[in-house]
């Protein structure tokens, strides 16, 4: 009885597609106007064949009343799955040969998808490479511009560096003369002694040089270049440098003052000077400016670019000056502790300041002439 049942079941599992084959053969010559009908019937044919096999297998899949053995049910279920997949693939592949546009082979679909993915990845890769190349070009251009800026800055800074050489022993008080300037190592001119026959010098702690104009009786324009370094040691003090000088002018084009710490009375009591353009001065390290321009008769004093962020003393800085206009709007008085008599006796009628806070500061810390007016620079 088991053998008869298995034979019957195997016969029922054979794919029944004869009707589909006849129909397909009869409709091979359909024109394009019948595509809708054609498609519908092909789909129905596949579904009917599959459903017939499903029904025939489902009726015999679990004959529990005859074969209560569970292992048989599992084996028969596996046969059902295998036959179902075989019938579906046979029908699909057969229909693909009739009209590939309606039923394209599965392998063709996979190949097309793979090709599309490869093309897409290629485009993405190309875009990434282009983007990276643009970033590299931009970075190189930026680095080139930065290098150019640094070179320009170094050229600008170094063009005014004057290196001088002293042949003697470099000890405190060592004296070096170059043209119209006399220097002393670790010393500066003592205030109030510049008119004496023998100028007095005083020591300071910094490791550098002090300087003085050694031809004060001459009214000629001073043209000697100022040493920035002497034997590698910087110029750090300009105290009383031109105090009482009769020079009508000073060529400051060679002045590099980036290392200077003291400028007390450096241009004081210059009665013949006509113009003082100090716009190229680097005063970022200067700490004291006591009486810097006191009794200076120059009609114009340009200090508009002064950096006074480290300055602590400004007492009497512009006292009794002859200039009528001053621009100190760039001044930073954050660290200034004393500015008494800063404009005492000054002939200036207009002094430009940065803001209201600075205006109030100068009004409170110095005795100013009635004619002097502070104006906020716009």
Q: Which features would summarize this protein structure in a list?
A:
6 helices; disordered N terminus; alpha/beta; six-stranded mixed β-sheet; 378 residues
Give an overview in words:
α3 (35-61) runs antiparallel to α4 (70-98). It is elongated, with a radius of gyration of 51 Å. It is an alpha/beta fold and 378 residues long. The strands form four sheets. Strands 1-7-8-6-3-2 form a six-stranded mixed beta sheet, with no helix packed on it. A three-stranded parallel beta sheet has the order 11-12-13. Strands 4-5 form a two-stranded antiparallel ribbon. It contains six helices and 13 strands. α6 links the parallel β12 (350-353) and β13 (373-376). It is 37% helix and 12% strand. The model is unreliable at 1-43 and 53-72 (pLDDT under 50).
Nutshell version of this structure?
Helices cover 37% and strands 12% of the residues.
Please state the structural category: alpha/beta
Number of helices, where a helix is a run of at least 4 consecutive DSSP H or I residues: 6
Strand coverage percent: 5-15%
Oligomer: single chain
Share of helix among residues?
A: 25-40%
DSSP strand tally? 13
Task: State the end-to-end distance.
Answer: 115 Å
Secondary-structure element string? HHHHHEEEEEEEEEEEEHE
| Rg, alpha carbons | 51 Å
What is the topology, as strand order, of the major beta sheet? 1-7-8-6-3-2
Shape: elongated
Largest sheet: 6 strands, mixed
């Amino acid at each position: 009885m088991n053998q008869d049942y298995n034979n019957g079941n195997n016969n029922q599992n054979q794919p029944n597609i004869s009707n589909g084959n006849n129909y397909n053969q009869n409709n091979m010559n359909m024109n394009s106007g019948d595509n809708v009908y054609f498609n519908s019937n092909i789909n129905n044919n596949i579904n009917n064949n599959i459903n017939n096999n499903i029904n025939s297998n489902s009726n015999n899949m679990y004959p529990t009343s005859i074969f209560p053995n569970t292992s048989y049910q599992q084996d028969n279920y596996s046969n059902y799955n295998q036959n179902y997949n075989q019938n579906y693939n046979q029908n699909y592949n057969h229909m693909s040969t009739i009209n590939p546009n309606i039923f394209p082979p599965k392998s063709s679909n996979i190949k097309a998808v793979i090709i599309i993915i490869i093309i897409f990845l290629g485009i993405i890769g190309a875009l990434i490479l282009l983007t990276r190349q643009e970033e590299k070009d931009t970075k190189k251009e930026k680095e080139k511009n930065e290098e150019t800026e640094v070179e320009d800055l170094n050229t600008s800074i170094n063009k005014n560096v004057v290196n001088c050489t002293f042949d003697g022993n470099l000890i405190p008080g060592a004296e070096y003369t170059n043209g119209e300037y006399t220097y002393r190592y670790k010393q500066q001119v003592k205030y109030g002694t510049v008119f004496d026959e023998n100028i007095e010098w005083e020591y300071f702690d910094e490791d550098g040089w002090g300087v003085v104009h050694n031809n004060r009786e001459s009214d000629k324009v001073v043209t000697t270049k100022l040493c920035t370094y002497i034997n590698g040691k910087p110029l750090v003090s300009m105290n009383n440098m031109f105090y009482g000088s009769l020079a009508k002018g000073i060529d400051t084009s060679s002045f590099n003052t980036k290392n200077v710490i003291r400028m007390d009375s450096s241009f004081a009591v210059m009665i013949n000077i006509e113009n003082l353009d100090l716009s190229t001065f680097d005063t970022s390290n200067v700490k004291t400016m006591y009486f810097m321009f006191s009794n200076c008769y120059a009609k114009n004093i340009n200090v508009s670019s002064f950096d006074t962020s480290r300055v602590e003393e400004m007492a009497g800085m512009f006292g009794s000056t002859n200039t009528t206009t001053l621009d100190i709007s760039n001044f930073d008085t954050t660290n200034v502790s004393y500015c008494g008599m800063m404009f005492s006796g000054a002939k200036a009628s207009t002094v430009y300041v940065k803001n209201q806070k600075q205006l109030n500061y100068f009004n409170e810390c110095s005795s100013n002439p009635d004619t002097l007016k502070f104006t906020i620079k716009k």
